[in-house]
Write a structure and sequence with these properties.
Elements: E1 3-7, H1 11-23, E2 27-31, H2 34-43, E3 48-52, H3 60-70, E4 75-80, H4 84-93, E5 97-101, H5 105-124, E6 130-132, E7 135-138, E8 143-146, E9 149-152, H6 155-166, E10 172-173, H7 174-182, H8 191-204, E11 214-217, E12 221-224
């Protein structure tokens, strides 16, 4: 059975999410601070983390950064309704998705199931190592080796990079990328894709401002360079 961790100082909301997850046959643990969450992640095996931005002490962003130093677990962040800055900051720091409060519990469940399914599926996909000039992508260990170092990538970063690389040379629209990597209908919000592409370029590109591997096709989407 899949198991998730809910990190939010709103105890009533945590219990509500936990009850909803039980209906989906997903176990859920709750904790109410970033510090206790880090301890629980170190002691237990989870398939996903739900993380609220606004918490006392260690806030959601610092908690996210600390988790990312140790784990590539899927992370779904909860933000306030009109806080677009927090959404972008969370995505750039390594979050895989976000949902604004207040939210529909059915939508939360759908996003959780989608993230877990895709994380599990990509882990079970063909494990052939992809080798390019100066870049190696290892699906088995979900990591990349570049001239800048070795990185164990968070789920969405790895899934997006692997999708582009397996379609080397093809121009992929933002809609197709979103529907493949997120597993849901495209909603004309490119912030997720752009944030992840930015993080990937910083890790694998020698010059992120003039990328060699992940090329932008203006007005359409992206392409993994067929010449590498």
């Amino acid at each position: 059975m899949n198991r998730i961790l809910i990190i939010d100082d709103d105890r009533e909301l945590c219990n509500l999410i936990k009850r909803s997850m039980k209906e989906e046959d997903i176990e859920a643990d709750c904790c109410y601070s970033g510090r206790s969450a880090l301890a629980m992640i170190g002691e237990n095996e989870y398939q996903l983390v739900i993380l609220d931005v606004m918490m006392p002490g260690i806030d959601g962003f610092e908690t996210l950064e600390r988790i990312r130093k140790e784990s590539n677990l899927p992370i779904l962040m909860l933000t306030s309704k009109n806080d677009s800055i927090s959404k972008v900051r969370g995505l750039r720091a390594g979050a895989d998705d976000y949902l604004t409060k207040p939210f529909d519990m059915d939508e939360l469940s759908a996003r959780i199931i989608s993230l877990i399914r895709r994380y599990t599926r990509f882990n079970k996909d063909e494990v052939q190592v992809l080798t390019f000039d100066g870049l190696t992508i290892d699906p088995d260990n979900r990591c990349v080796l570049s001239e800048k170092g070795t990185y164990e990538l968070p789920p969405k970063e790895f899934d997006l990079l692997l999708f582009l690389a397996r379609n080397q040379g093809k121009i992929l629209t933002k809609q197709r990328i979103y529907e493949e990597v997120w597993g849901e209908a495209y909603v004309y919000d490119d912030s997720n894709i752009m944030a992840i592409i930015s993080r990937l370029r910083k890790k694998i590109e020698e010059n992120p401002g003039s990328p060699r591997y992940i090329q932008t096709v203006k007005g359409i989407g992206y392409r993994f360079n067929k010449e590498v």
